[in-house]
Design a protein that fits this description.
Blueprint: H1 2-26, E1 31-32, E2 40-41, H2 63-70, E3 76-80, E4 94-100, E5 112-118
Parallel strand pairs: 3-5
Antiparallel strand pairs: 1-2, 4-5
Length: 129
């Protein structure tokens, strides 16, 4: 009985040691940078830099392509720039007359708004600012 108790204790210690060793080696050794040259392997910077994005100039372009370009992770809305309140079900059939924020401006608020009209219409005379 005493041998079984000792073997059980040794087995438990061995399993814990192997789990601890596997856990330590499973994490990749990577650098997380806050500012250039100050990265510490495996440890994030104490002063991380915010991720910033700038609105590309998509005015006059196809709304569907702009949606693809901006990516699915960005919260964006398509609004009828004519003031008629039409629903934009398929952005590929619409062109961009304006955006909020404007071209080359910092994206600081969400959702990003694209003011659009159907491809066959002109942006002139729209209510976009």
């Amino acid at each position: 009985m005493r041998v079984v108790t000792i073997l059980r204790a040794l087995l438990t210690v061995g399993l814990l040691a192997s789990v601890t060793a596997c856990g330590a080696s499973a994490a990749p050794d990577r650098s997380v940078s806050g500012t250039a040259g100050t990265a510490t392997p495996g440890r994030p910077s104490a002063h991380p830099q915010p991720i910033s994005a700038v609105m590309p100039d998509v005015i006059g372009g196809n709304a569907g392509r702009a949606s693809e370009q901006m990516g699915s992770k960005l919260d964006m809305v398509f609004k009828d720039a004519s003031g008629q309140g039409r629903s934009v079900d398929d952005p590929a059939g619409w062109k961009i007359c304006g955006s909020r924020p404007g071209p080359n401006q910092q994206i600081t608020d969400f959702p990003v708004v694209f003011e659009v009209v159907p491809l066959a219409e002109s942006c002139r005379g729209t209510t976009s600012k």
